[in-house]
Design brief:
α5 packs across α10, α6 packs across α7 and α8 packs across α9. α4 links the parallel β7 and β8. This protein is an alpha/beta fold. It folds into two domains: 162 residues, Rossmann fold (3-Layer(aba) Sandwich), CATH 3.40.50; 93 residues, ProC C-terminal domain-like fold (Orthogonal Bundle), CATH 1.10.3730. Helix content is 49%, strand content 13%. An eight-stranded mixed β-sheet has the order 3-2-1-4-5-6-7-8, with helices on both faces. This is Pyrroline-5-carboxylate reductase. Its main location: cytoplasm. Pfam families: F420_oxidored, P5CR_dimer.
Length: 269
């Protein structure tokens, strides 16, 4: 789906903003001449392959020129955005900054609060979003086109869910890397060479993600199938379940979600 109108990204030189920009351009969803980037340096070297992109250091100029404004600066810098965009569609991918504050910062009524990830560059992001009442059906189509160009997307109806997804799906590879690292260290402790352990576990996670994505069965159904098979994996899964792995993961995600709710309010990182 093509993206209508001009899109501007404030913070387009950052990891997330730049990934979204490159993902949209690489997908052909947005023409380079329809993309504006605002960065303090006034440069966007990561977008050199698309010379038609307009780059500025002036956030207000970007907001005046673009139909849709994406806010992608660190939450601690949200107060310095300094734009007046009462008649623009404003999309924020800033962690923890609530809708009410986004309205205060921009003067906009048509606001979408979303979360994405740097996987957007590879069109592998998951980007849930929440809209204010003023966001129209046409606006929603624009949001779907933007996030659909860089991965998968869903509209949600509760602002707390954005914080939950910030915790769960924002960090890439994040929690998955934590689990992989634990398996690699386990293998090394049993005498497997570090480079072999790393290759094996990286390949395991690559294969697993592909199979889970393509399978009709849910992850829970796949786990139960392994347990029912009663082989070596079943023994491992049963031991991990008995040790409360699911509860440990849930508590970790709750801690991350709590931090997500606070990060936009206290300027933390």
């Amino acid at each position: 789906m093509a993206i209508e109108g001009k899109v501007g990204i404030i913070g387009g030189n950052g990891q997330l903003g730049s990934a979204i920009a490159r993902g949209m351009l690489a997908a052909g969803a947005l023409k380079p001449e329809d993309l504006w980037i605002s960065a303090r340096s006034g440069r966007a070297p990561a977008l050199a392959a698309w010379p038609g992109v307009t780059v500025t250091a002036d956030n207000a100029a970007l907001a005046a020129a673009c139909d849709t404004v994406i806010l992608s600066v660190p939450p601690a810098q949200a107060g310095a955005i300094a734009i007046a965009a009462p008649d623009r569609l404003v999309i924020s991918v800033m962690a923890g900054v609530p809708l009410r504050r986004l309205g205060d910062l921009t003067g906009a009524a048509r606001i979408v609060r979303a979360m994405s990830s740097p996987a957007a560059e590879r069109r592998l992001a998951y980007s849930p979003w929440l809209a204010t009442e003023a966001v129209s059906a046409r606006d929603r189509d624009c949001v779907r086109a933007i996030f659909g160009a860089v991965g998968l997307t869903d509209e949600v109806t509760d602002e707390d869910q954005i914080d939950q997804f910030t915790a769960m799906t924002g960090p890439v590879p994040g929690f998955v890397a934590l689990f992989a690292d634990a398996m690699i260290r386990h293998a090394e402790a049993r005498g497997i060479a570090p480079q072999v352990a790393s290759r094996a576990i990286r390949q395991l996670f690559l294969a697993s993600s592909t199979i889970m994505d393509e399978a009709d069965a849910s992850p829970a159904e796949q786990v139960r199938a392994m347990v029912d098979y009663a082989g070596t994996t079943a023994a491992g899964i049963t031991a991990m379940e008995a040790l409360g792995l699911a509860d440990v993961i849930s508590r970790g995600l709750d801690a991350a979600a709590t931090r997500a709710r606070m990060i936009g309010l206290d300027g933390g990182a």
